[in-house]
Design a protein that fits this description.
3 strands; 38% helix; bacterial flagellum biogenesis; repressor
């Protein structure tokens, strides 16, 4: 993992087409702006984690239901 320190209005450049700019630092909150092509999906980490957990739960429930249905036949 690369760790960088940046100040407000400073930029981190990723490849040729992604720019991350520090917009504001207020207490323990940092606002950033990301400029990237629309073809690149950008999601918050906690959202990805939530989706992953929901998908895993759904898979478990489906397998339990499938097992119950198979026992009835």
């Amino acid at each position: 993992m690369l760790v960088l320190s940046r100040k407000v209005n400073e930029v981190i450049q990723i490849a040729d087409n992604i720019e991350i700019r520090i917009l504001e630092v207020k207490g323990d909150t940092v606002r950033i702006g990301i400029d990237a092509p629309k073809s690149i999906e950008i999601l918050r980490g906690e959202l990805v984690q939530s989706i992953t957990e929901t998908n895993q739960e759904a898979l478990t429930i489906d397998m339990d239901l499938f097992t119950q249905l198979m026992k009835k036949e």
